[in-house]
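Re-run with default settings, no changes from the original entry. Doing this only to confirm the output is reproducible before filing.
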Amino acid sequence: MTDNLPQFERLPFNEKTENEDREIWQPNWNCFCCQDTGQIQAHLVRLIIADYDHNRDRIPVCQGCNKFDRHNLMEYGVLDTRFDLFLCKKLDRISRDNWKQITQKQFEKYRNQLNVETSKISQSHSLTNTNRTDNDNREVGQRKAEIEATSTEQWKLMRDDYLAGKKDE
């Protein structure tokens, strides 16, 4: 039955924000009380009105940023304007603090994951890797012995040859 339905491509209403990289610590709104919608976020309203039901109660309007179009809805009596500027600023501060805490936890989580992964990689490439075979250990021991057996005079000659080129040429 669904074979007869046409298929449409998505039509994002704002392609600029659709294609931007989003960072969890950089929100795309200015007012944390209403997230630039003009309507106070429900979790913040519940701090003031414990049994708030966003489907049945009047819409609490943010006075902090004046983003809500009151003129069209004022006449219908669906707006709750009891939240004054001072209260909206308090709710904004609470939401900002929560945002900081959440992003800090996320940052710590990602940093810890990165440290674990870095540690795993460095251990796998370590010269003191405990996963060496007996052959590997024997070869490392031979190289160390050769270096230690090289006299200071030989080191000086090798250094001079390396830095100045061979004197015979």
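The chain has six helices and two strands. Strands lie at 59-60, 79-80.
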